[in-house]
Amino acid sequence: METDVIIIGAGASGLSAAKELTRLGLSFTVVEGSHRIGGRAYSEEIAPGVWFDLGCSYLSQGETNPFVAIADELGVVLGKDRGDLFEDSNIRLHKNGVPLSSIESEAYTAYLSECDAAVTAAADRGEDIAIVDLVDIDSEFATIFMHSMADYCTRDIDEVSSVDFANTDKGSDIPVLNGYGNLVAAWGSDVTVSLNTKVARIDWSGVGVSVETSRGALRGRAVLCTVSTGILAAGEIEFVPALPDWKMEAVLGLPTGTENKICLHFDRDVFGPDGRGFHYTWNDEGLAGGFEASVMGLNTAVAFTGGRFAVWLEKQGQQAGHEYAVDRVAEVFGNDIRKHVTRSIVTAWTTEPWTRGSYSCALPGQAHQRTELARVLGDRLFFAGEATTIHDYAFCHGAYRSGIRAAQEISQTLAS
Fold first, then answer.
1. Cα–Cα distance, 145 to 139 (Å, whole number)
2. How far apart are CA 30 and CA 82, in angstroms?
3. On the CB side of 274, how many CA atoms lie within 13 Å of its CA?
């Protein structure tokens, strides 16, 4: 079949591009390799009426996040009064099972401020270097800092660009009661998508494009590729002609790293009203962890892991992830919580075949590659996705905005 635009991927960027192309009066076909829409926005029910987001779970940059208005329009319940969950002053700190004193907590906050100031200053000087070269890793708080940074960035601080990290816009993080993934799926439900349609080859050698899929060939005037850099780097899709060296350098400079999450469900409230919030815990053996506890009033805890440790733990299997999360919660709330765990869900984004990772992270010296990744090839091969954005990469709404940007570029190009 022939169409104006072939959109590869039905995550937030592919769906927003489809909606924008509709507004602009262009025809399109959306193909998705998996069995569902939403991409890395995906919710599963861990208990009746209790949802866990395996991917994005907070409406980050909540003051400007377009999904806040979308949620309001769809009647989705948001925790707008809990958007300050990750502010330094609200995070509970525990070492060796003991809460930090107010003096220790203030010292931790001061350390974070020093780290942030050092990274910002380096970025302002144009020094795109590894964050590890800018912070004091001998600090008593370095263990939990490095763990939390790996959670946030998907890679360890020796592999994180100072400029890229400094570019991220800050803001509130609003939780979604019944799942961010469910919100995205509801918002995108009016877009026609060909599911279970894996793309094998994109031929952009002549006039227009030809796309070979597991369900047949498509022809169009242009193609919008929204797949992750993990998929592009792995060569899952053959490009004819091959992507130029500068484009592949952008792909490899923005690898898809790993942030995994383990959700625990309990048969009762093991946290108490004062236990709700986000907790960091670490011990003298070097084990560290961060987890949210019953943020939306549910009997769940969600532990986060990132970087090399997340990859290693994923390779150990689901039970290892379960035990890691239970141990971290027990360090804070006591061993009695163990007998109240009813079920767990452990993510495995490194081996997820449709993404090969969680989201992008610019390597040191590679922050500029986000602009290069977004550049069009031959007036017919376009790119979108969170990795193509500068100030809201790693976020679902960043992908959303990139799809709109790409659709508008396509419309202008095809009209010229």
1. 9
2. 36
3. 2
Strands 216-225 and 2-8: parallel
Distance CA 261, CA 280 (A): 14
Tokens representing 92? 């509970």
- DSSP summary character for residue 363: P
Angle at 94 between CA 85 and CA 271, to 5 degrees: 60
Strand order in the sheet with 92-95: 98-99, 92-95, 277-282, 288-293, 300-306, 259-266, 341-346
CB 208 within 8 A of CB 223: no
290-333 pLDDT per residue, tens:
999 998 889 999 999 999 999 999 999 999 999 999 999 999 99
Instruction: Give the chain's domains with CATH numbers.
Output: 2-38+188-255+364-415 (3.50.50.60), 84-171+257-351 (3.90.660.10)
Q: Where are the beta strands (DSSP E) in 61-117?
A: 92-95, 98-99
Q: Torsions phi, psi of 183, nearest 5?
A: -60, -50
C-alpha to C-alpha distance for 170 and 63, rounded to whole angstroms:
10
Write the single-letter amino acid at 92. Answer: R
Residue-wise pLDDT for 14-61, tens only, equals 999 999 999 999 999 999 999 999 999 999 999 999 999 999 999 999
Cα atoms found within 13 Å of the Cα of residue 287, Cβ hemisphere only: 12
Please indicate, yes or no, whether the overall pTM of this predicted structure exceeds 0.85.
Answer: yes
Q: Which residues pair with 45 in a beta bridge?
A: 51
- Measured distance CA(348)–CA(314) in Å, rounded: 6
Structure tokens given for 384:
């979108």
Rounded to whole angstroms, how far apart are CA atoms 9 and 32? 5
- Residue 304 pairs in a beta bridge with 261, 290
CB contact at 8 A, 41 and 396: yes
